[in-house]
Amino acid sequence: MDYLDDLIGRSGASAYCLFASSDDPDMRYLTRFVTNDPVPVIKKRGEKPIMILPVMEADRAERESVAQSITRQQAGYQEIAATEKNPYHITAAMIERCAGGAVIVPPQFPLALARALEKKVPVILDEHSAIAQIRARKSSTEIEQISVVQKATEKAMEQAINLIRETTIRNGLLWHGEKTLTSEQIRYTIHSTLLAHGCTAHDTIVSCGEETAMPHCTGEGPLQAHQPIVIDLFPRSEASGYHADMTRTVSKGEPSRKVCELFEAVRQAEILGESLISAGVSGADCYQKVRDYFDDHGFKTDTEGFIHSLGHGIGLEVHEKPSLSPAGEELKEGHVVTVEPGLYYRGVGGVRIENMGVVTSNGFNRLTNFPVELIL
User: If DSSP codes are grouped into helix, strand and coil, which group holds residue 175?
Assistant: First the structure.
């Protein structure tokens, strides 16, 4: 936490402050505590973070959290509430007592609480999201936690692709037994498998045919033969809160020549993207070289083609720092990133392939270990 302590010292503040539930990745990172309700977290220079909690959470926090905890009563709640009824003003008063002076807050800090705090102490906005910067570089423990989720992701992807592989083709649709196979059924299979491995997923993409030309279309209805099927899942571990992310594009039966060309171009772009990654290289450079590859091979980008970034950091958020995009920053050892080139054309469809790995001084240490194949 030296980076955060340095920020507190440079700014002349007394503490860094959050007010969030564990759905906020910064809060979970600082405290390793899981709670549905937002709580104040105060990090003073050279000290462990302090959480202000309801009495009923105190014993659990003592057992589960790396932060210190005090109860609302210890923070003066009852005394403050005797004269102040606005909940934001009550929370602000408790924070002031614990912080003892000016506080730094992240961009996602609640505005109403910031306004209440400003009446008591100076409030400094952390425009560059210091904790997100710290979170971007993963420890060996974090990398292992992400690897565990990746293994569950691959189990789920295997179940989904095997289900498609087992189908028969009738009237242009995929049939599994006496029923057509649908996006919804594949999604259910994926989510059930993930749950069995301690993970949950939302908005899993199982798109088919022309739907695949829209990168984030989740997909619906019967799956078609001889068409691209994009499967993109990004589950989260219920225990650790860390994510994985993987995409494959498959087809039951041979798709059009154009789709095959897209697949081969994306497959080569993915290999190129991985080869470019190393500590000290900029994410913007990696993105541009893959875009140049597509341009050089006749896949120009305008409103179609390669219309998203090359990849992104992953951890307690599905999308976090660093970015492999036109604004991508320098890659550093310990970053965990995806490489996910894609090509998308209306009337044809889309193809995306996504792997995940760790940035090292020697290159890209891939965590994804799953085959890439188009035709099943």
Answer: strand
Residues 78, 80, 82, 85: is their CA dihedral positive or negative? negative
Contacts of 151 (CB under 8 A, 6+ apart): 197
Measured CA to CA, the distance from residue 320 to residue 130 in angstroms comes to: 13
Q: With 0.85 as the threshold, say if the pTM is over it.
A: yes
Closest-CA residue to 338 (of 361, 316, 362, 321) = 321
Residue 53: partners with Cβ closer than 8 Å, 6 or more residues away: 35, 39, 61, 69, 70, 71, 72
pLDDT digits 0-9 by tens, 221-250: 999 999 999 999 999 999 999 999 999 999
pLDDT of residue 1: 73
Report which secondary-structure segment, H or E, holds 276: helix 257-276
Structure tokens at 73: 């009563």
Rounded Cα–Cα distance for residues 344 and 289 (Å): 18
Instruction: Tell me which residue has tokens 């999604």.
Output: 187
Sign of the CA dihedral running 287, 293, 294, 296: positive
Neighbours of 6 (CB within 10 A): 12
pLDDT at 2: 85
